[in-house]
């Protein structure tokens, strides 16, 4: 049976851990509320701009040969930009691992198809993993996933946008672990370039039958860039909300496990103390009997 003092120290240690995990759960809960509000406000704009860009992409299908914007064309994929988003911190269960696992599988699949990959990362955990495993990162950013900023997000994805438009790459994909609800997260793989024309259904009467002018080309270019930039920003907001929900769950589970461990150690402590008292009584009685 373990020493009483050792058991007491273990109980106090686990109780200290339990207080810490409980506090971290409360902090994550508060941060999640703020992240949910930001995500909800941004989702309205995200849905509208995606609906608009998809609708335009579908409608210009019949006149795509007269449009110079590369985002509206079917392109043979030879080189891909993969942008992943992970957290800067851990203690959030399998949140980061799921993103890393998905990206690793995508890299493997693309290599099997002889497609070149350029990897870019946001978030310390993912960046450290791929660097440790000898993956070369074309670009990286730490701190942005913890505090999403539209200007910084736009700057980060701008090089991928420009390279696609200039023909240096053929596809831009954003991968992140997204928010579903307080107890669930889901991996999201979003191909932002080229534009997906299959997301909406368009009637034949809706097909554009006009020749695009220079100013219309400019509007399309600006709209596509805005869509790409906001896709990156929204992925950061979505990932942050998912991170807080995952951490809240992880800390709740850790707090529960700590409570169970305290009960287990307390039971062992009580048994050990009872045995010690029993042993002392036996020794006292034995001593008294020896004096008779």
What does this 3D model show about the protein?
Mean pLDDT is 86; it is low at 200-212. This protein has five helices and five strands, in the order αβαβαβαββα. α4 crosses α5. The protein folds into two domains: 4-21 and 250-291; 31-245, ATP synthase, F1 complex, gamma subunit (Pyruvate Kinase, Chain: A, domain 1). β1, α2 and β2 form a beta-alpha-beta unit. The protein is α/β, with parallel strands linked by helices. It has helices spanning 4-59, 95-112, 124-132, 150-165, 214-291; strands at residues 79-85, 116-122, 137-141, 171-181, 184-193. The longest helix is centred in the C-terminal third of the chain and has 78 residues, at 214-291. It has a five-stranded mixed sheet, with helices on both faces.
